[in-house]
Amino acid sequence: MIIETRNLKLISGDTDILxxxxxGNAILAKRINATVQDNWTEFGVDALQYxxxxxxxxxxxxxxxxxxxxxxxxxxxxxCGGYKGKPTNDGIVEVGYEIAPNYRxxxxxxxxxxxxxxxxxxxxxxxxxxxxxxxxxxxxTSVLQKCGFEKxxxxxxxxxxxxxxxxxxxxxx
Length: 173
Prior knowledge:
By secondary structure, the chain is α+β, with helices and mostly antiparallel strands. It has one domain (about 1-170): Aminopeptidase (3-Layer(aba) Sandwich), CATH 3.40.630.30. It contains five helices and ten strands. Strands 1, 2, 3, 4, 5, 6, 7, 8, 9 and 10 form a ten-stranded mixed sheet that branches. β4 and β5 form a beta hairpin. α1 (about 15-25) packs antiparallel against α2 (about 25-30) and α1 (about 15-25) packs antiparallel against α3 (about 45-55).
């Protein structure tokens, strides 16, 4: 599955793509037919392995895990993102994203987030989308605000400290 935005092509990571990403950049580049720079992800191999494990359990969840954003004009992988699994029974899905350092501050995180949001909201089960950020204003909080999210809760994470929970509710038409 591919989500298209103006500047990005978000490729859904199936088991083959995720295995390639874990094996290394050269193998991933061949699999997705795009240039893969060294610093494309800060989430790291552990996050990719987690997604792979979840997809191995149920291929039906393919649309609900990792996406690889390809910058259309440069044909280069510029980050990583997606969802933390399929919608819950309450219709909640969590979104996350990252952009490689040399592609930041150019609107790509917002564009990627909007693509993921639209994709999720097109699923009839989704009633709201949540996200978590560090508990201070930062580029990620700006992205979420631009996408219409509201800060709904402040949490204390034992590893990260203060975390803000954000939510975007689906409006009935």
